[in-house]
Specification:
Blueprint (H helix, E strand, L loop, with lengths): L2 H13 L2 E7 L5 E5 L16 E7 L5 H6 L6 E5 L5 E4 L6 E5 L5 E5 L4 E5 L7 E4 L8 E5 L4 E2 L12 E11 L11 E12 L12 E9 L16 E8 H10 L5 E8 L1 H7 L13 H18 L7 H14 L11 H17 L6 H11 L3
Parallel strand pairs: 3-4, 4-6, 5-7, 6-8, 7-9, 8-10, 10-12, 11-12, 12-13, 13-14, 14-15, 15-16
Antiparallel strand pairs: 1-2, 1-3
Helix pairs in contact: 5-6, 5-7, 6-8
Length: 370
C-alpha cells in the first residue's frame, strides 16, 4: 500500500473514524466523515452522476446492498468493516479490496476479476466462496507492514493470478496449493525466499516477478523444462551472485529482465533503508545522500516522543529540505517525490511516532522545492 494510505488506515483504525471517500471521473478523492453512531444515506451519492470508485473506512451498514444496484461503480475499498462474513456475490465490480479482521473472514464472491485482501496475517482463517474456485481471479495480498507470504486459501485451487506485496519471507512449498497459477508476483521488502525449486510445481505459469529478495539460492530455481509455459520473468533487487545464476539458468526465456543488482557491501550498509534502490536510477552520490539523510533523521526521531510535536515537525522539515539541494542538483520526478514521502512515513513508523497526517503533509509541502 502507498504510505499515505497506510497512514490513513492507521488513523481511522485508532480513532474509530468512519469515512466515505468517493471519486468522480478523474477528480481527486473527496471525503464524507460519518459521525459516531450515525448512519449514512447511500442514495446521496447518486447525485454525483459518474461515481465509479468508492472507499469506505468503518462498519457502515447498507454498503453491499447499495453496490448491488449501482453497476457503474467498479472499484471498491472497504477497510475496518469489522465483519466476519461478507456476501459480495451480487456485485458487478472490477476490484474489491477488503481487510481481514482478527477473527478471520468468510467472503462470498460472484464474477470478480480482482480481489485484494489487506492484512491476511491478522490471525484468522480466510475462506473464499468463488463460483469457479479461483479460475479467472487475480488475488492480491496487501499489507500495512512487512509480513510473510499468507497461508494458501484452500478454497481457491483454480486461482489464476497471485500477487503478494511487502513480503518478509516466502516459501515455495506454500504455492503448491495454487497449481494452476498463470501469473505470480512476489514483491518483497528485504525478503527471503525458501525452496525456490518448488516453483516447478507451477507447470501452467506464464509470468513470474520477484522483487527485493536478497536472500535466496538462485541455483535452486527450476529449469525451464519444468516450466514449459513460462514466457516472461522479471527480477528487481537482488544480489550479484543471484543475478548471474538467473541469467545463466533462464537465458532462453523470450523475456527476461534482471535489474537492481546490488553488491554485498551496499546491502550491508543500506539493507533496511527505503532509499537503497535509488542507486539503480540515480548517481551514486545522490543515492548515498538520500540514504544518509534517512539514517540521520531516524537517529534524531528515535530520541523524541509523541508529545514533542514541534521538534518532530522541525526534523521532518530538515529531512525534506535535504532533497532540495542534492549533490549535482538532480531533477526529482513524481516517482522520486512519492519515494521521499514514503521514506518520511517509514521514518515515523520506525521511530514509533504518531503524527496527524494533515500536519505531516503540511510540513512536507512547506519544506519541499521539488
Amino acid at each position: 500500500m502507498p504510505a499515505a494510505e497506510v497512514a490513513r488506515y492507521h488513523q481511522c483504525r485508532q480513532r474509530g473514524i468512519t469515512t466515505v471517500r468517493f471519486s468522480v471521473g478523474h477528480a481527486a478523492w473527496c471525503d464524507a466523515v460519518v459521525a459516531p453512531g450515525s448512519t449514512f444515506d447511500w442514495s446521496t451519492l447518486d447525485r454525483l452522476g459518474c461515481l465509479y470508485e468508492l472507499a469506505v473506512f468503518g462498519p457502515l451498514p447498507g454498503l453491499l446492498d447499495y453496490l448491488a444496484t449501482r453497476r457503474l461503480i467498479r472499484n471498491v475499498r472497504w477497510h475496518q468493516h469489522g465483519a466476519s462474513c461478507l456476501d459480495a456475490s451480487a456485485l458487478a465490480l472490477s476490484t474489491l479490496n477488503v481487510d481481514v479482521p482478527e477473527g478471520g473472514l468468510q467472503l462470498k464472491l460472484g464474477v470478480l476479476p480482482c480481489l485484494a485482501l489487506l492484512d491476511c496475517h491478522s490471525g484468522g482463517v480466510v475462506e473464499i466462496d468463488h463460483p469457479d474456485r479461483g479460475r479467472g481471479l487475480r488475488l492480491e495480498h496487501l499489507s500495512t507492514r512487512r509480513t510473510p507470504l499468507p497461508p494458501a486459501i484452500e478454497t481457491l485451487p483454480q486461482l489464476t493470478e497471485l500477487s503478494s506485496s511487502h513480503l518478509s519471507h516466502a516459501d515455495g512449498r506454500a504455492l503448491a496449493s495454487y497449481p494452476h497459477l498463470r501469473s505470480l508476483q512476489l514483491l518483497g521488502d528485504r525478503m527471503t525466499l525458501a525452496h525456490p525449486s518448488e516453483l516447478a510445481t507451477l507447470t501452467e505459469l506464464e509470468r513470474f516477478e520477484l522483487r527485493e529478495c536478497y536472500a535466496f539460492d538462485a541455483t535452486e530455481l527450476p529449469e525451464l523444462t519444468s516450466l514449459p509455459r513460462l514466457q516472461w520473468a522479471e527480477f528487481f533487487g537482488l544480489r550479484q551472485v543471484a543475478a548471474g545464476s538467473i541469467k545463466k539458468r533462464w537465458m532462453k526465456l523470450p523475456h527476461l529482465a534482471v535489474r537492481g543488482v546490488k553488491g554485498d557491501a551496499w546491502l550491508a550498509s543500506n539493507a533496511d533503508n527505503p532509499f537503497n534502490h535509488w542507486i539503480d536510477h540515480h548517481e551514486p552520490r545522490v543515492a548515498l545522500a538520500a540514504c544518509a539523510a534517512y539514517r540521520k533523521s531516524l537517529a534524531t526521531l528515535r530520541k523524541l516522543h509523541d508529545g514533542q510535536g514541534e521538534r518532530i515537525g522541525e526534523e521532518v522539515v530538515r529531512f525534506t529540505t535535504v532533497f532540495n539541494r542534492m549533490p549535482g542538483d538532480p531533477t526529482l520526478d513524481t516517482l522520486d517525490t512519492e519515494a521521499i514521502w514514503d521514506g518520511l512515513v517509514r521514518l515515523l513508523v520506525a521511530a514509533n511516532l504518531e503524527v496527524e497526517p494533515e500536519a505531516l503533509q503540511r510540513w512536507f509541502d512547506q519544506a519541499r522545492e521539488f
